[in-house]
Amino acid sequence: MAVILGIESSCDETAAALVDSNRRVLAQHIASQDDAHRPYGGVVPEIAARAHAERLAPMIAATLADAGLSLDDVDAIAATAGPGLIGGVMVGLVSAKALAMASGKPLIAVNHLEGHALSPRLADASLAFPYALLLVSGGHCQILRVDGVGQYRRLATTIDDALGEAFDKTAKILGLGYPGGPAVERLAEQGDPAGVPLPRPLAGSAEPHFSFAGLKSAVLRAKEGGRYSDADIAASFQQAATDCIADRLAVSLKAAGDVSALVVAGGVAANRKVRALLEGIAAERNLRFVAPPLALCTDNAAMIAWAGIERLNAEGADFSGDPLDFAARPRWPLDPGATPARGAGVKA
Ligand code: KG4
Ligand code: ZN
């Protein structure tokens, strides 16, 4: 049985967790920086990095104390090494290196996206490879076939904005504040999903990719036009976004081949309309539908610790960890062989 300390600091959540190979989360702490970034309507990298630097060390100490463990009881230290805001990633990775050096325990450099991709297996022991994964967060919007640890085939990505980013921008346009996804979802409950005519970018296209920039612009025009209520705009945006997911996923699921399940991960997986849609799509295709519990959907350190455990299991007994000079990576695609999507170049 292994116990892993996980550290997450790639965006605006500072988090530490202890997870064991029996899928038990022994302790976890998470601090969001929403208040610090709210005045700017989005994450400010410099502010994020400073906040991680202030909070992380005491948070790791508190996590160990909660579990009644010391570093001696930990088998490895896993930290997000990218992709993400590089200042924040460096804070977490350097902390992990220091702990690894001081304790003599292996360092595991985790791809944040792999943390999201494997998180459903922390919650559900019966989820087997391969599965189709919709990874939708503030920075990422991809469909992947997951064949195993480190084995990913990217089926689709976004050519402009990520889905969470589209939720956040819609929230900003509607003056709902930051972070936007949950606020848009709440307001949408009071609106008419067919109340505002909005586009479904790339719907019907044979290429698999997503696009949300046109939808965001249409939301801005609808707001500026002054004819629609904010609730109708929010509900119609959410409807258009879920329609896009359904349309795009159909193309990718054809290309995915045989998979055991349809899995959703990333912050937008917290959205109930998105979950309900995916549940329906999975049922139509006789696929299992697996979504991690909400707390595991948004950024957290339990998923990073779990990715460390999966890596330990995959590497076998000879694995002594990643090198202590492992460099933080602002970009780190899960499928380095994937051909770039038209118009892409901003997001991994
Ligand atoms: O995975 P995550 O915590 O951070 C990234 O790695 O990006 O995802 C955060 C994103 C934000 O864009 C946020 O607005 C979105 O997930 N989100 C939601 C909901 N909860 C979080 N989007 C739609 N509906 C929600 N309930
Ligand atoms: Zn994330």
Shape: globular
Please tell me the CATH architecture of the largest domain by its name.
2-Layer Sandwich
Number of beta-strand segments: 10
Number of domains: 2
Distance between the termini: 34 Å
- Spans of at least 5 consecutive residues whose pLDDT stays below 50 are none
How many helices? The count is: 11
CATH homologous superfamily placement of the largest domain: ATPase, nucleotide binding domain
| Overall helicity | 40-55%
Strand fraction equals 15-25%
Oligomeric state: single chain
User: What is the strand arrangement across the widest sheet?
Assistant: 3-2-1-4-5
Q: List the bound ligands.
A: 5'-O-[(R)-(carboxyoxy)(hydroxy)phosphoryl]adenosine, zinc ion
The ordered string of helix (H) and strand (E) elements is: EEEHHEHEHEEEHHHHEHEHH
Structural class: alpha/beta
Feature tags:
Nucleotidyltransferase, domain 5, alpha/beta, binds zinc ion, 11 helices, binds 5'-O-[(R)-(carboxyoxy)(hydroxy)phosphoryl]adenosine, 10 strands, five-stranded mixed beta sheet, 43% helix
